[in-house]
Structure formats: structure tokens, C-alpha cells
Amino acid sequence: MNVKSLLMVSTLVVLGYGATAACGGEKAKVDRAAAEKIALARVPGGEIKEGELETEHGKLVWSFDITQKSSRDVIEVQVDATTGEVVAVETETPEDEAKEANDDKDKK
Q1: Which of 15, 66, 90, 107 is the S-S candidate for 46 at Cβ 3.0 to 4.6 Å?
Q2: Using one digit for the tens of pLDDT, what is the confidence trace for 41-94?
Q3: For 23-92, where are the alpha helices, taking DSSP H only?
Q4: Are 92 and 71 in contact (CB under 8 A)?
Q5: Domain boundaries, the chain
């Protein structure tokens, strides 16, 4: 198998199983595309800046940072990866984002 084929297979494995491995073996029943639609319905005119599958307060959730052209704030929407229910919506200012980035940098 050549390097290109190996990379393609590795990518497919990560896309297919990475979410399960990253969250202690628990598997999302709601896929990312469906969760994105649910999250965007909460933020009219929004655009997803980034998203990830993570465990928050013991629940497997899709967490999305959503921006709007009309604001510098970021709306974080968390969608339960098992039920598709929105479990949290928080507004983060640019100052909040900078503090979070700095805290993350200090943890590394």
C-alpha cells in the first residue's frame, strides 16, 4: 500500500471512529451535520467557526462556536450527541475568548 492510500484509509478511520475513541467509547447517535443544523437554528444568520465532540458535565455533546456578522461575540451552542437536544447556549465576548485561549495555553 502506498503512502497516499495509507493516509486516505487513516483519515476514514479517524472520521468514522475518532469521535467514539475521543469520548471514552461512548458513541454519538446524532451526527455532526445534524447537530450543526440544530445549533444553527438557535443562531439566525450564524456561521460555525469551530466544533467538536466532547464530554461536558457527564454528557456527550457536540459543541459549536458560532459567529454572526452583526456581532463580535461568539455563541457557543451545545447539542446532546445522543438526543439532539440543545443543552446549553452561551455568549462569549472577544475578551472571554482571549481569556479562554490563554487558559488553554497555560494548561499545555
Answers
A1: 66
A2: 999 999 999 999 999 989 999 999 999 999 999 999 999 999 999 999 999 998
A3: 32-41
A4: no
A5: 26-107
